[in-house]
Design goal:
It is a single chain. The longest helix has 38 residues, at 84-121. The protein is built from five helices and no strands. With 157 residues, it is mostly helical. It is elongated.
């Protein structure tokens, strides 16, 4: 039971953050393609803004890998007798990245879509356009940090 809970935590971190990033990159990509249709020279600028919501999926994957390594699924021996209490701790340690990754990627996409619109009208404002969605990124990084510290602070399986 414990190992299943720990694996569920790893899966949730990768799954929810990945879903948020896929939705975010897709939404920002739709806005970016509209700008590139009108002015192909702005492709590089809008591509940067489209990619920003994709980082949460990477962060979720990092937490999943670290968790799976700590519990022995990757590069070790799986402890099938892990207590349900330890498994639950791993699950809870992964939740900040899972939940914040999902929400922040979607919210970052909302900001990215707006800043892609800014670039469509004022192509010289890339630094400002990058700063606004990067502020949302701060919370994804904080979630990555807390999940990472929580996972590596737990006993190995």
């Amino acid at each position: 039971m414990g190992i299943a809970l720990a694996i569920a935590g790893a899966a949730l971190a990768a799954l929810l953050a990945g879903i948020g990033s896929a939705m975010g990159v897709g939404r920002a990509g739709q806005a970016a393609s509209g700008v590139v249709t009108e002015d192909p020279s702005k492709f590089g600028k809008v591509l940067l803004l489209e990619l920003l919501p994709g980082t949460q999926g990477i962060y979720g994957l990092i937490i999943a890998f670290v968790t799976l390594m700590r519990i022995g699924v990757i590069g070790g021996t799986i402890n099938a007798d892990m207590s349900w209490q330890l498994g639950l701790q791993y699950l809870f340690a992964c939740l900040p990245m899972a939940i914040v990754g999902l929400i922040s990627a979607i919210q970052q996409a909302n900001v990215s879509v707006s800043t892609i619109s800014l670039i469509s009208k004022r192509g010289d404002q890339l630094a400002k356009a990058m700063t606004l969605p990067a502020m949302v990124e701060t919370y994804a990084i904080l979630a990555l940090l807390i999940s990472f510290l929580a996972v590596v602070g737990l006993p190995t399986a």
